[in-house]
Write a structure and sequence with these properties.
Layout lengths: L2 E6 L4 H12 L4 E8 L7 E4 L2 E7 L10 E4 L6 H9 L3 E4 L15 H8 L5 E3 L3 H14 L4 E10 L6 H16 L30 H13 L6 E8 L6 E9 L5 H9 L4 E3 L11 H4 L5 E8 L6 E8 L3 H16 L8
Parallel strand pairs: 1-2, 1-5, 2-4, 5-6, 6-7, 8-9, 11-12
Antiparallel strand pairs: 3-4, 8-10, 10-13, 12-13
């Protein structure tokens, strides 16, 4: 069976990644419609050797659309609701629906069954949350987790095309001896790290940090799970990384953790200290797996392990996860992955 597919936000970096993932996984597309804001309407975007004219999302009619992938921002949720009301399965990549109790929040390796109970819309979690829970879930299945402390190292591509351009322009400005112009971030991102992602919320915790706390609890079905996050933007183009301390309710060895993760879907262990083998964002870029290494005992707590993970936030952290949701809900078998 093939499907009528729409992509809202098709001209953005995640929208472009949707197209790549759909093609690489041979998602069965009968027809494709691309949508974006009015300023992008009329542009053409190629897919499968065919140029598609971008429609104005605000004016688009979703009648006949089977699956609509949304990466248009939380302010566009009315259009996602409209698409669902017209019969489309909506997979939404914004934060608009993630904590809505009537909308499943899904990472297919963790809770695919939740997506099948949808009422028209399935929410795609935050990118940093996705790559974290892909690793936590197989550990939680073996030994109950008591507490998680995570620090993120988030690539600028998570902020979109403007942030990537800002990184490049600042690097060039420094080479030229010119002032660094900052528009996307509150401080220069070139040759710098910024311990601030998105905005401040309650208790001086950023909105990104709150997303990781609340979404992880919901996906793992652990509403009282103790989790603390510090989210940091780093001058890496693509792929987020996270340093994670996981405390269990019993003693767990690094060898146990390696074995559990070696068998986990969507995870690849890269952990050989003698060979200086550990994951880096370059290794994870353009890949589907979350890479995990530096697995070791917390020297201050025998029930805890430290580990390092990295994953491509445009793929597993966004477009790939969304396509996998649609595959799981519709019963589509993935084709050739990248």
């Amino acid at each position: 069976m093939s499907y009528a597919v729409a992509i809202a936000g098709a001209t953005g970096v995640v929208g472009q990644e949707f197209l790549r993932v759909l093609e690489q996984r041979a998602f069965p597309i009968q027809s494709l419609r691309l949508m974006a804001s009015a300023r992008s309407a009329g542009k053409t975007v190629a897919y499968g050797g065919v140029d598609h004219v971008v429609e104005d999302l605000a004016q688009a009619d979703f009648a006949g659309v089977d699956v609509a992938f949304f990466s248009a921002g939380s302010s566009q949720q009315e259009h996602a609701r409209r698409a669902a009301a017209q019969g489309a399965l909506v997979v939404d990549n914004s934060s608009a629906f993630r904590m809505d109790p009537d909308v499943p929040l899904v990472v297919p390796e963790v809770n695919a069954d939740a997506g099948r109970a949808h009422q028209g819309i399935v929410a795609n979690p935050n990118c940093s949350t996705i790559i974290l829970v892909v690793v936590l879930a197989p550990l939680e299945a073996q030994a109950r987790i008591r507490r998680v402390v995570v620090s993120t190292y988030q690539a600028v591509s998570g902020s979109g095309a403007a942030a990537l351009a800002e990184l490049e322009s600042q690097a060039q400005a420094e080479r030229d001896g010119s002032p660094l112009v900052t528009e996307v971030y509150p401080a220069p991102i070139h040759a710098n790290v910024i311990p601030f992602v998105q905005g401040f919320g309650d208790d001086a915790i950023t909105t990104e940090e709150w997303k990781m706390v609340r979404e992880t609890r919901r996906i793992l079905d652990r509403p009282e799970l103790a989790l603390s996050a510090t989210c940091v933007r780093v001058p890496v183009r693509r792929a987020h990384s996270e340093a994670v301390n996981v405390e269990f309710e019993r003693e767990v060895s690094p060898d146990e953790v390696r074995a559990w993760l070696a068998d986990a879907p969507g995870v690849r262990v890269v952990d050989d200290p003698a060979a200086l083998a550990f994951p880096t964002p370059r290794d994870a870029s353009d890949g589907d797996d979350v890479l995990v290494g530096r697995i070791r005992t917390d020297p201050g707590n025998p029930r805890a392990v430290d580990l390092w993970l990295t994953g491509d936030q445009l793929r597993k952290g966004a477009a790939l996860n969304a396509v996998q949701i649609a595959e799981a809900v519709l019963g589509v078998e993935a084709g050739a992955a990248s």
